[in-house]
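This part of the workshop introduces the protein records we will be handling. The structure tokens are whole numbers drawn from a learned vocabulary of backbone shapes. The record below serves as our worked example for the rest of this section.

===
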Amino acid sequence: MDVKKIRSLMPNINDMTYLNTGWSGPSPTYVVDAIKSRLEIESFNGPTSPEILESGQKIMSDSKMLVSKLFNCMPEEVVLTDNTTDGINLILNGLPWKPGDEVVLCDLEHPSVLLPAYNLQSSKGVRLRMVSIDLSSNHNDIKQSFASTITGRTRLVMFSHIQYSTGLRMPVSAIASIAHKVGARVLVDGAQGPGHIDLDMNALGVDFYSSPGQKWLLGPDQTGALFIKHNLIPEVQPSRIGFGFSSNFNLEGRFDAVTQSVDKFSMSTTSAPLRAGYNAAITKILELKMPNVEKRNLELTKILKEGLSSIDGINILTPLDGNECSALTTFQINGADESEAVLQLWKNDKIVIRAIQSQKGMRVSTSFFNTEDEINKLVDAIEQLSNKAKA
């Protein structure tokens, strides 16, 4: 992978060390140019002229095609969303719930998983069952924990593919297999998936997978996609009704609702420029080939973990090796406040990482565009902070 060439397309990181792609990635010029080009086309040619309308529709259909290649699924299984949380809510509010139905989730989840589940509990009378995951747990431990929590009343199992708080990669296919044995559906928060690790919806065996465009794909905000397994599309009802809900209606209130197609989730006008940027982001990732991108991400992570492990006073919370690993690394500096340490890294060294308050730690995202020198710079800066905390 020609990292130097990639970085030449990212002038926005020339004056900093950007290691926070797990929150939001810096968009390269090919993404920004795609957005600007589409904005200019619409501005100069009229947003509703026939040619512009047609080209806008093509951008949306291209989005579904590109996501299907990234996910290894059918375009007909892709819903275009605003972000990961949008897709999660679409599923949670669209499934038919009965009081006493159970939802199984785990205690490492992002608030965008926990809070919609809490709301479901209060509004629908659904019971939540929480799996507790120790930070030292391996895939077999996690599998057993979910197996002992899932019951015959479990309607949905929801969890993150990669835990935002620790970087733990979950055993998705194993958990999905357990859930399906009792007839439960599986919803995966894929906020840290696309552009980070290679994806295959068939191999994962999930029913629903919600993802963003602005993180590891390096696309724009307010873009994302939701996978819905084709045979489950009729089961999920739109909680918000828009033009895609029916193409045949009259003023007497009669209409034929769309049930078999993801078109039923379509609302109204969406941003073709933002979606054009999203398409450019996915196109580049597909060109680079996700197995290569994932390999590069993990190689940088290994260098980081080795560096952090050599510093006295550092506690690494993330799995050090094995199938549990991802390119997110969370650690603590003994005696240092995580938020203050993150601020000092920016002020002193122009390094961008983030604090994870739930773990009282700091998280580093090592993306394919980062360099070994940047990792070493971070390790040196962390060592200085650790020495200061001990003084």
User: Anything to note?
Assistant: Residues 33-287 form a domain with the Aspartate Aminotransferase; domain 2 fold (CATH 3.40.640.10).
